[in-house]
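yo

u said u wanted the structure for the complex thing, so here. seqs first:
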Amino acid sequence: MSNTKETPQLKTGKGGWVHYRPEIKLLDCTIRDGGLINDHKFDDKLVKNVFDTCVAAGVDYIEFGYKGSKKIFAQNKFGSWKFCDEDDLKRIIGKKPAKTKIAVMADADRTDYHEDILPKDKSMIDCVRVACYIHQIPLAMDMIKDAHDKGYETLLQLMAISNINEHDLVEALEIAAKCPAAGVYIVDSFGSLYSEQVRDLTKIFLRVLDGTGKDVGFHAHNNQQLAFSNTLEALITGANRLDATINGIGRGAGNCPLELLIGFLHNPKFKIRPVLECCRDVFAPLSKQMDWGYSIPYALTGQMNQHPRAAIKMRASDKPDDYVGFYDQLMQEES
Amino acid sequence: MSNTKETPQLKTGKGGWVHYRPEIKLLDCTIRDGGLINDHKFDDKLVKNVFDTCVAAGVDYIEFGYKGSKKIFAQNKFGSWKFCDEDDLKRIIGKKPAKTKIAVMADADRTDYHEDILPKDKSMIDCVRVACYIHQIPLAMDMIKDAHDKGYETLLQLMAISNINEHDLVEALEIAAKCPAAGVYIVDSFGSLYSEQVRDLTKIFLRVLDGTGKDVGFHAHNNQQLAFSNTLEALITGANRLDATINGIGRGAGNCPLELLIGFLHNPKFKIRPVLECCRDVFAPLSKQMDWGYSIPYALTGQMNQHPRAAIKMRASDKPDDYVGFYDQLMQEES
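structre next:
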């Protein structure tokens, strides 16, 4: 694997970055993370546009959504991308692209993985990304083994990293080091991390996973307008797998914008123009109907290292700009 | 002066930053930089609210606007804060606050400084911040001497830093090292800098100014959603003077949001609640009438290290979301 010692040094100079790291892999989670805003009810035209955009932009992976349990989640309450059934994937993808891999997320305790993840030769899916909290690591290991044995590339998404102490984190990573996942992601679920924390965490991941061949990945949230910069911090420290979404869409404050990340990565295989087309045609109009992106309530939950759910609720209330009332409420709850 | 070796180390840990640096000085330029959007035509009620907010929040300096030349700028075309006449300052400020200093900006070649900057004992102003491009350094030195001799604290704002090569920069700083300014600011005029460039520049400023007692300052723009993170990068590297604006208001993509910066700085003298009140009462409604903050055209000029004026013009046109047309235009102009 690459780590900070082995990766080629990025060069800075007048006018910006000159060099690029060919091993960097981008995963677009526009439909998956954006789907958390609207219960995964994107129409086919939008999903098809996003898919075509990612292929044209040279993105390495596109993550459509979840393999959600139909026992837990009623199919009439959620859109297709909560379940990513094969027929839905086929309808959008058509002929599989040569270079862009199809990914889905499998949430620990929310996926009937033995049944719902088919053998790879019966699926459009290339890669299963297992998401878990630290107490679910044993379950996640079983999920990864199951998907790996069925023929998939696998990835591990360790959520709520800001609530894990270093001793527990090292133990979790030592377990993950033995699984077949190609990469392990740092997930800043609450958008609470500052740059030096990202650097420290990336170094811990690189150190414990050293010699396993696994990449370190980073998934940001933009609560404090740090999604892009924290993604760069992880990259500079040695992370090779980066998540982004078109126009930064995603639950709450959203994610690292793909158009900013491609602007930074000078690898000629990544193209910004298709992303700008999609922003113009899809996300500029959509942003007038759906609420995502930075706003002060998300900044406050990020500052306090809290789940954004209170901020999401407040933004959807009849007082979306009562920042002081929201701050006072958070302060009262903290005491 | 503080530099990276001497400043106390910031501590990171679960839950965020623990320590703070008491020498950090915040300058709020809400009215000054925000005034670039509306030709400095803020009404008294708004200016008074911002001023009271800064005092209550513990901000060290509030910058009202420019000491613009009345020969160059017609008084009937600009608001009061293009000129910062004493009567206007008195009307807003009333009794001078104990801890918050009053600052104005004097632009090189756009200020009749001999006439319009009064002796300090006849003024509400505490601090004159001289802004210049590198070719105006000799003029800026004369402006700083003039203001210093009249009794003011002075600061130097070196603009368009991303267009200055290192040899010229060191020469400029060696000249600035001899002037009486209390601080010299790095100004990312185009919002084009990435974190490592900010770090490198801050180190150059610290090195050349070492032993002079001058602080290094940082003024960000948010073209690439990096205003806050770059401000933190400068701070962590050793900059002691930081610019911010309430709700990130400012020309184009705006500036580093004061509410994010105060959330990061754990110095108990800074208070976030008054800033949230001002965001609720003033800037949430204002944002529905005025356009500032991140959008893709600003990201593109930032990526290309260009002045935001083309993006500002495009955002005010009848096609504010035609990102592809704008990108193609920039590409054609580049060739």
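The first helix of chain B runs from residue 30 to 34. Chain B touches chain A through 50 residues (CB under 8 Å).
cya
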